[in-house]
Amino acid sequence: MTQFGFRLWAALAIIVLIGGMLAAPVRADGPEMLQIVTASGTHDFHVEIAKDDASRAQGLMNRRFMPPDRGMLFEFEREEPVSFWMKNTYIPLDMIFISRSGVVTNIVEKAEPLSERVIPSGGPCLAVLELNGGAAASIGLKVGDTVRHPFFKP
User: If we measure between CA atoms, which residue out of 35, 34, 87 comes closest to residue 59?
Assistant: First the structure.
């Protein structure tokens, strides 16, 4: 191989490597529209759906940024207590625990990035919505408010 050929090959290899690092890995289905209804109004979010063990285990780990109107909805097969943690999660998150009917049952605000502290649901839930830390407070979210998405059956 000539020196030019080697340089061309090396340049292409670097482009492919960088392209692979920049591409967002497939983590979940989505995004889908979700609405949160609070005393301050209806708030729209685009959420990825984590509905299998692999996507729920990955969650939002290793991400350094998430737009303000984005999030991830973790869907479970049955309503029961669940626990989360922030291992390998760089973004502070609000965790919103939701019942089968779409009612907010618990809110954990600004979970600490990279923490391995267990964050319990505080009771049974069918889903957990993760939003950027501070989003719940900014829309005035309270326990008892409603989340609208086809997954919930009012």
Answer: 87
Task: Quote the domain boundaries for residue 78.
Answer: 27-148
Average pLDDT of span 137-143: 98
Residue type, 40: S
Cis bond leading into 68, ω under 30°?
Answer: no
Q: Tell me if 59 is assigned to some domain.
A: yes
Residue 20 is assigned to a structural domain of this protein: no
Tens digits of per-residue pLDDT, 70-89? 999 999 999 999 999 999 99
